[in-house]
Amino acid sequence: xxxxxxxxxxxxxxxxxxxxxxxxxxxxxxxxxxxxxxxxxxxxxxxxxxxxxxxxxxxxxxxxxxxxxxxxxxxxxxxxxxxxxxxxxxxxxxxxxxxxxxxxxxxxxxxxxxxxxxxxxxxxxxxxxxxxxxxxxxxxxxxxxxxxxxxxxxxxxxxxxxxxxxxxxxxxxxxxxxxxxxxxxxxxxxxxxxxxxxxxxxxxxxxxxxxxxxxxxxxxxxxxxxxxxxxxxxxxxxxxxxxxxxxxxxxxxxxxxxxxxxxxxxxxxxxxxxxxxxxxxxxxxxxxxxxxxxxxxxxxxxxxxxxxxxxxxxxxxxxxxxxxxxxxxxxxxxxxxxxxxxxxxxxxxxxxxxxxxxxxxxxxxxxxxxxxxxxxxxxxxxxxxxxxxxxxxxxxxxxxxxxxxxxxxxxxxxxx
Amino acid sequence: xxxxxxxxxxxxxxxxxxxxxxxxxxxxxxxxxxxxxxxxxxxxxxxxxxxxxxxxxxxxxxxxxxxxxxxxxxxxxxxxxxxxxxxxxxxxxxxxxxxxxxxxxxxxxxxxxxxxxxxxxxxxxxxxxxxxxxxxxxxxxxxxxxxxxxxxxxxxxxxxx
Lengths: 416, 161
What we know:
The structure holds 2 protein chains of 2 kinds. Chain A is 42% helix and 12% strand. Chain A has helices at residues 18-23, 28-34, 38-47, 60-65, 90-97, 99-113, 127-142, 173-180, 209-221, 223-228, 260-267, 301-306, 325-339, 345-362, 370-381, 389-403, 405-409, and strands spanning 76-81, 117-122, 158-163, 204-208, 237-244, 250-255, 277-281, 290-291, 315-320. In chain A, the strands form 2 sheets. Chain A has a 5-stranded mixed β-sheet, covered by helices on one side. Chain A has a 4-stranded parallel β-sheet with strand order 3-2-1-4, with helices on both faces. Chain B has 2 domains: 11-70, Orthogonal Bundle (Arc Repressor Mutant, subunit A), CATH 1.10.10; 82-158, Glutaredoxin. In chain B, a hairpin with a 2-residue loop joins strand 3 (138-140) and strand 4. The two termini of chain B are 22 Å apart.
């Protein structure tokens, strides 16, 4: 049976409170970290092979190491709790059921990067997570775990809980920073990377909720232990958000090396109502789709990359044999058209065109050149924009059509 | 009573605005929280509200307008006493979101984006609210409601004053 790290407290009564968190060893990692040199904390996280669990799978220790050494500038730690990738809901569970794991991880990370001010950017629609996290932050202040001279260590750290206002693009880290600064959430050109010039123009680390929640465990049990739970290139277990046509949808904790087949059939009870599997989106809506024959793949970042898809946010959307793939593409294309921030022409225009084409195909008014036009527009636009949003949209556009082309063609009138 | 045509915060609210502004290295960071406070106070973010909030930050009304129009949670027009937002993204689509939207539209007698004649409910469709394990789902004001069926939707709607 795989070890439970992130979910170990999920079913405990009042797991969101400081008292219960402490009963299960909460804040012992902080005590340890306050006695460690910042470089030693960083080293432990590097050893753990922890990779960003929000979507990009970037090595966390390496990210932290990009903060300029010895810089007198203020440095900020920003937690990306703007969960929005369709099919993903694990950060909501973490914030509602174990908010102190995130807070403890933040204080430890702050010490490693010499930050004294952190922000938790929570999507505006998440009212309950915001309430729970705000309550937990208040408790942490009252217990002397936040603020000045934390636990007599001489280390100061404050947390501001910030609420978004509804925009998927703010989950992109530089879009998030623009939004945090009181602007529309337009992504910024990199370089400079946030670690050099981020929030309010200062060195900033942006980490996902789940990523930061792993940190206390790594400090308590060692980087090697965490690395040993995963593959050679990615440590740990992680949370999979499984939805769609499975018998038991929900959050599943499993090692990063679990197979997609095992997630669907062992962890989630297989396909509901005895139906057959048709396709799976393995990592949130931006991940290229896999057919029923392609699910013997491991769910680590490199395993899915090799299979032509991506782990993204680990939002697994399962489709049974009753699903119309063209309709699914229309739904996904509507989303990208709605959420494109409008900054870069290829993304702003193409997402709109592609939605219109996908919609008319579903309505039986498609033209025979539409499928190739979608593929062409997708490929020409990919890689030409400031952020990864359009590349993410191309994932479904291209893969849905390439893998289920006959289904699209059947909807397009022949004489058209 | 201040409204969206003559917006003005109370002394307590102005103190809260200053507190929020003080939390950020640059006070503009508080723009979204203050706009939220404004919307909760005045009902929606009218052009007059934008101008009033701009004044509190020494920003141009154009900057505030650009921000307000970028985010889905700021309403530029009055909305009903309750806002019902049905997710129509992929997981909810797979689990029948379309029939939930059609049911709500029929029983409330409004199209998506409209408010009932009595000003009780505004019906919206929204992108993923990240509660896909409860699909199909919707947000009713501050609450998430999931595993929706037409019967469950009727019960929820009947409970809205």
